[in-house]
Amino acid sequence: MTQSIQYLTGFGNEHSSEAIKGCLPLGQNLPQKSPMGLYPEQISGSAFTAPNHKNLRSWVYRKLPSVCLGKPTPSSIDSLWKSGAFRLKHTDHAPARWNPILEPSKEHFIGSIVTQCGNGNVAKQEGSAIHQYYCSQSMGSECFVNHDGDMLIVPWEGSLNIQTEMGHLFIEPCEVVLIPRGITFKVDLPQKTARGYILENYGAPFEIPYRGPIGANGLVNPRDVEYPVAAFDQKDKPFTLLKKFLGSFSQTNTKFSPFNIVGWHGNYSPYKYDLRKFNAMGSITYDHPDPSIWTVFTSPSHREGVANVDFVAFVPRWYAMENTFRPPYYHKNIMSEYMGLIYGVYDAKPKGGFVPGGSSLHNCFQPHGPDTESFEKAASSELKPEKVDQGLAFMFESNNPYLLTEKANDQKWRQQDYIDCWLKIKNNFLGA
User: Fold this and answer.
1) pLDDT at 1 over 80
2) Taking CA 221 as the corner, what is the angle to CA 173 and CA 45, rounded to the nearest 5 degrees?
3) What is the mean pLDDT of residues 315-323?
4) Domains 7-11+71-262+269-275 and 278-415 share a fold
5) Active site residue: 90, 147, 288, 331, which one?
């Protein structure tokens, strides 16, 4: 299946895709009668009056419109997926770190989602939530639509076959996929299990960060972002459509497939990106640039220059700075940082504790940085050009603190001794 999937390229582009040639009307979006008896439907991901460069919408032409799906009923899904507004009850003043989830859920992708932390408010379309999944079942004849937020899926083990209304996407570890809110999808597993991270963005849609003095090239090159080619289920069959709206779940039993879009055009669609194509920028003289230089996608807030949430990736790269402490420096900052590891080791925590599938959280102004061993090694190493390629880590960074769920505070999952990794740092002061 992976070899047969094709993609459209170019971030934010107006794409046009036909599963059957001639299914899209020519010259207008809403003819009195659409080709092939299809029903036109517009999916808008922004306000109708949004500026042109931020206006998101796609016209889809489907066998039956979405209004035919039927009446939803409360869902029986037993989920640890929580939505904002979040409460302070389980959040303390200390940094947090977690082991990987050890046991797969007996549920499919949606049923396996466990929320670690979040901020903001779903109803106000502000903030974000961070989850993990560890599933052992394909969704089969079940599908899902999230009314609350976009879902950025970051697998670290196992591939995912994702069928969306616009077409098929296949992702493996080191790739990420974005499912916009309001788009129906389902996830099937090529292997026995799959696990990874999810960022649910309640706020403004993700965009490529402003490059500024970097110029026209670097970081995410738009042509490397891939969109699905139109595809639809040839035969109708019953589906159970799960929905999440304002944090609550419902389901609708349909007699036909929701994956019935024969053609579409526009710029509101799922997409995927391969982090191995990220073109890293950095210092070639001395000192570090701030970690914002690693931003893959950003969701802006109402304040200029401040993100609702950023997705940042620490990809393999070269270090060549002179007279510089090269691992990430000690710091405390106003943004809150959640980190995960896709494979290998992270250069500031190479010895245990932070492993693939694990995670850490440093809320605003909580100090953090290299552990004792990493500092000692980096402070005495010979400085010559070196390739940092032993792992792939990422960060979800928000302008609001992340509040923990009850599950995230579970002693079997959370590392109670995380802060001890800094207790052996020596006082090397040579002054009087």
Assistant:
1) no
2) 80
3) 95
4) yes
5) 288
